[in-house]
Structures are given as C-alpha cells and as structure tokens.
C-alpha cells in the first residue's frame, strides 16, 4: 500500500504545523530528508533538521512503529514552523521522495481497515470536529469511547447464539426442543427490542443536540424582537430602531444555553401590509414559526392591545415574552408569560432557563449511550422495525425466522462496521478533511 502524506493542521500562519505520513516506507522516506543526533526511536520526539532543497528547517519528528500508531501502519509526524509556504515545501519534498498526497479521510480509513477504530468511532471523530456546542462535543466523545458499539455487539452476540441454537434444532429436530427454541427466539428478540427502543428513546430526547433548538421570535412590529435577540446573544446582531417594520427578512443567529445550541430566528413583524417586500418577510415569518421547536411571542407590555391573530397562528410550545418591563405595564396578563426588559437586560437569564427547561425535558446523561448520529439512529430504527415484523410472523418456519434474524444482525452490523458495504464506508470517510 502506498505511503500517504498530508498536512494535518489548518493551512495558514501559526506557531506550528504538523505534516504526517503513513505507510510501510514512512520511516525510509523520513530518513532521506530529516537528520538528527542519535538513533530514531519509536515514540521519541527527535529534534533535528528537515532538508528543503539547499536549506534546512529546524523541526521535531516523531516515529510511530506499526501497529502502535493511529493508522496501524508505520507513521511519521513532523512538527514544523507554521506557515503556508514551509508546509507546502515539506509536503512537496516528501512526495518527491516517494509519498503520495492523501485523500480526504484516508488516515482514518486506514485506521478502520486495520482494526484500530470501529466505524462508529470513525463517525464520532467527524462529529467531534464539527461540534458546535458543548453538548455535541460530549456526545461525540461518548461515542468515541465505544459505548454504543459495545451495546450493539452485546445484542449481536445474543442473536448469534440464538442463530446457533436454531441451526442445531433444525439439524436434530425433536418436538419438545423445537418448541423450546421457538419460545427462546421471541424471548431474546423481545429483550433485544427493549434495548434498541431504549437507545432510540434517548436519541429522540437528545435530538436537539444534533440540530439545535429552533426558536422563532414572533410578534407585532416594534414589540422589541430584535432588541430581545441582541439581549439573548449578548451582542448587537440585529438592527434596532424606533421605525416600525425595520426587520424585513428572517435574521438567524446561534447561541449556547447550558451547552445546548439554540438557533434563533428573528422574524419580520406580523401585521397587515401592502408593501410587497414586507409582505414577503411576513410570509417567511409564518413559515419560520411553523418550522420552529419553540416560539417566543414578543409583546410590548406598555401597550394595551395585543394581536390575538398572532396567537392563533402559534401551534408550537411558546413563551409570551412581555417586553419593556422598564416602562409602566398596561397589558393584560398573557398565557405562559415572563416579563423582561431587552433594553435593560432584565430577566434575560431567567428567560433562557425557561426556554431550556421547556425543551430539554430530561437531563441528558452524557456518561451513558447517547446516539446523535443520524445514520446510526436510522439503522437502530430499522433494526427495531425488523424485529417487530418478526413478531408478526411467529408461525413461520425456523428457516424463515433464522433468515429474518440474520437481517436484524446485519442491520446492526452497519453501525459496528461488521457488515459495512463500500458505499457506506465511502460516505462516512468523505466527510473527513485531508490529513485526518
């Protein structure tokens, strides 16, 4: 297999850059370009010089001897000075000496193919890199620990034992044993289904970790939606003026609340309008409202009237945010309300806590198994569905039941990587960057 090379740190100016090689010729190529005092030993950081044409770059090099490396192959990493030019020249020199530029995710793919990481651990690496909130990071780190694959393999092992008993029963059929095996089939499947349903339930409860909580800020013009958005974010994200109808389109912004990402959508004020641009903004506001997980109905507490028509549009969990509490209140009591002053930043933290508690019904145990990967969740759901279908075919022959159980095992294997196909592998590793 070819020896691959790639820059593993972001391209740009920085203190250091890391260029890594993996393959049977990694050390051989490194010795052609790197010189240092003493013998190169595995897992020792060596100080020396990298020869770039006629000049030398002072750097560090570490050698990992197979199979004790990330990829399971011989690996060499150079820690050079950060900079676009030096990184490019180091790569070019290594390629000149026999290495080839790595494809995206090729290092991790080799680690998978050499049994250093499982398929779900590979996906957790991508999820960790792409994490946008503390909760997403915790889930990806939990997956990287192998907890999910451990649970799935336990289910697979019980199905394997069951299949072995079915085979023996079919080879030596006796009426009593035949019925005992049939009974055991549905006991084991029932237990497996319960375990799968438990994983799926936790995943559904934690679904906001994957995509964040979508929050729509709706209300009449000049109620203070943009001011509230700025207060929630702690920065001036939206333009605020006393002129009605300033927000003509949906403004998007993100913020973490207790480690969970909240996606805020500040919408155009909903009212009757003949302005074509404003009308388009109002239509988008209604669409955003319907697609949200939580609605903040922003009303002006210093005004008597509230638009009941807007209330009728809301079909999602909502909080009535009675804004402008720094002024005298004349508004009637509103459903599920909380008084705030976006201008004075009053009760904003209380509002955040209320938002979190309304959506995150149950504390997420990051020390347990939390499935946040959509592909993995899909296979869990499909496996559970296949087990339910077997229960509907209780009277089928053992041969047919055995075949259906194998389908469940194979579906779970798409998570552990034991029944992976090339398309799935290619899809997963295509998400990696070059050098990972």
Characterise this structure:
By secondary structure, this protein is α/β, with parallel strands linked by helices. It folds into 3 domains: about 5-100, Probable tRNA modification gtpase trme, domain 1 (Gyrase A, domain 2); about 120-205 and about 370-430, Four Helix Bundle (Hemerythrin (Met), subunit A) (Up-down Bundle); about 210-360, Rossmann fold (3-Layer(aba) Sandwich). The chain has 15 helices and 13 strands. The strands form 2 sheets. The protein has a 7-stranded mixed β-sheet. A 6-stranded mixed β-sheet has the order 9-10-8-11-12-13, sandwiched between helices. A hairpin with a 2-residue loop joins strand 9 and strand 10 (about 260-265). Helix 4 (about 120-130) runs antiparallel to helix 5 (about 135-145) and helix 13 packs antiparallel against helix 14. The longest helix has about 30 residues, at about 175-205. The two termini are about 20 Å apart. Mean pLDDT is about 80; it is low at about 240-250.
């Amino acid at each position: 297999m070819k020896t691959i090379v790639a820059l593993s740190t972001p391209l740009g100016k920085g203190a250091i850059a890391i260029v890594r090689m993996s393959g049977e010729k990694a050390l051989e190529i490194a010795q052609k370009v790197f010189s240092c005092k003493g013998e190169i030993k595995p897992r020792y950081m060596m100080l020396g010089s990298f020869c770039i044409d006629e000049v030398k770059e002072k750097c560090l090099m570490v050698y990992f001897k197979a199979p004790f490396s990330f990829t399971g192959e011989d690996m060499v990493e150079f820690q050079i000075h950060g900079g676009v030019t030096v990184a490019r020249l180091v790569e070019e020199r290594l390629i000149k000496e026999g290495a080839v530029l790595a494809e995206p995710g090729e290092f991790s793919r080799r680690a998978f193919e050499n049994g250093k990481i499982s398929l779900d651990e590979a996906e957790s690496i991508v999820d960790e890199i792409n994490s946008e909130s503390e909760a997403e990071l915790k889930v990806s780190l939990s997956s990287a620990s192998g907890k999910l694959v451990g649970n799935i393999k336990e289910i697979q092992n019980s199905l394997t034992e069951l299949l072995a008993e079915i085979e023996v029963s079919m080879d030596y059929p006796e009426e009593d044993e035949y019925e005992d095996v049939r009974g055991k089939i549905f006991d084991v499947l029932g237990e497996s289904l319960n375990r799968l349903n438990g994983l799926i339930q936790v995943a559904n409860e934690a679904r906001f970790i994957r995509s964040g909580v979508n929050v729509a800020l709706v209300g009449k013009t000049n109620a203070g939606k943009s001011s509230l958005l700025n207060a929630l974010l702690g920065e001036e994200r939206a333009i605020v003026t006393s002129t009605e109808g300033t927000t003509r389109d949906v403004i998007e912004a993100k913020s973490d609340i207790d480690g969970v990402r909240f996606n805020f959508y500040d919408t155009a004020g909903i009212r009757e309008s003949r302005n074509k641009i404003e009308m388009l903004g109002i239509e988008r506001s209604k669409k955003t409202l319907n697609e949200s997980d939580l609605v903040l109905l922003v009303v002006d507490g210093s005004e008597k009237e509230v638009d009941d028509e807007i209330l009728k549009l809301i079909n999602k969990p909502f909080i009535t945010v009675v804004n402008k509490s720094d002024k005298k209140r004349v508004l009637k009591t509103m459903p599920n309300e909380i008084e705030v002053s976006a201008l004075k930043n009053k009760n904003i933290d209380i509002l955040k806590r209320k938002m979190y508690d309304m959506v995150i019904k149950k504390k997420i145990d990051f020390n347990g198994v939390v499935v946040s990967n959509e592909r993995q969740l899909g296979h869990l759901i499909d496996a559970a569905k296949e087990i339910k279908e077997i229960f509907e075919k209780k009277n089928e022959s053992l041969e047919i039941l055995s075949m259906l159980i194998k389908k469940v095992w194979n579906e779970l294997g798409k998570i552990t990587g034991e029944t992976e196909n090339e398309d799935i592998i290619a899809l997963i590793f295509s998400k990696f960057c070059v050098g990972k």
